[in-house]
């Protein structure tokens, strides 16, 4: 049985020994690196890095992210989300995997990005919407 995040958080709060917690929950803790995760997404979605790069309006820097030699900024992770055409939930997971902070609905820019993901907008349309609303654009 897979433990969800809420269960794991509860167990951490109740734990008196971190080693025992880690041993008991080893199978439930992610061991994938960010680059391994995005590479897995490529295979799962039957995409190429070039397709994600084009759709996310990313520079060649994206190849270094997929190879694991560079970690992306939050904006780059967001561009990857649009490049992969992720759902809101999958985008939030990608942001967590990158350790860049999830989208926060009380933040104006993040709200626009959440709406854009929900609507399945492409990166150019998102940039236009951000620009119209006076928010920082991706590029």
The overall pLDDT, averaged over residues, is 94
Rg over CA atoms, rounded to whole Å, is: 17 Å
Q: How does the major sheet shape up?
A: none
Helix % is 55-70%
Specify the structural class.
Answer: mainly alpha
Measured between the Cα atoms of the first and last residue, the distance is 43 Å
Strand tally: 0
How many separate domains?
2
Shape: globular
pLDDT < 50 runs, ≥5 residues? none
| Strand residues, percent | under 5%
Order of helices and strands: HHHHHHHHH
Tally of individual helices = 9
Q: What can you tell me about this protein's structure?
A:
It is a single chain. The chain has 139 residues and is mainly alpha-helical. It is built from 9 helices and no strands. The chain folds into 2 domains: 1-30, no CATH class; 34-132, no CATH class. It has helices at 5-14, 18-25, 34-45, 49-55, 61-67, 74-84, 88-98, 108-119, 123-132. It is globular and about 50 Å long. The mean pLDDT is 94.
Key descriptive features of the protein:
2 domains; 9 helices; 139 residues; mainly alpha
What would you say about this model in short?
Helix content is 63%, strand content 0%. The chain has nine helices and no strands.
């Amino acid at each position: 049985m897979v433990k969800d995040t809420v269960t794991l958080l509860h167990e951490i709060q109740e734990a008196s020994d971190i080693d025992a917690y880690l041993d008991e929950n080893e199978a439930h803790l992610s061991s994938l690196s960010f680059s391994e995760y995005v590479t897995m997404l490529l295979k799962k979605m039957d995409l190429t890095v070039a397709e994600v790069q084009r759709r996310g309006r990313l520079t060649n820097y994206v190849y270094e992210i997929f190879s694991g030699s560079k970690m992306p900024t939050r904006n780059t992770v967001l561009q990857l989300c649009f490049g992969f055409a992720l759902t809101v939930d999958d985008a939030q997971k990608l942001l967590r995997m990158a350790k860049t902070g999830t989208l926060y609905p009380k933040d104006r820019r993040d709200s626009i990005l959440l709406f854009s993901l929900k609507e399945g907008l492409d990166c150019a349309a998102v940039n236009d919407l951000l620009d119209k609303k006076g928010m920082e654009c991706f590029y």
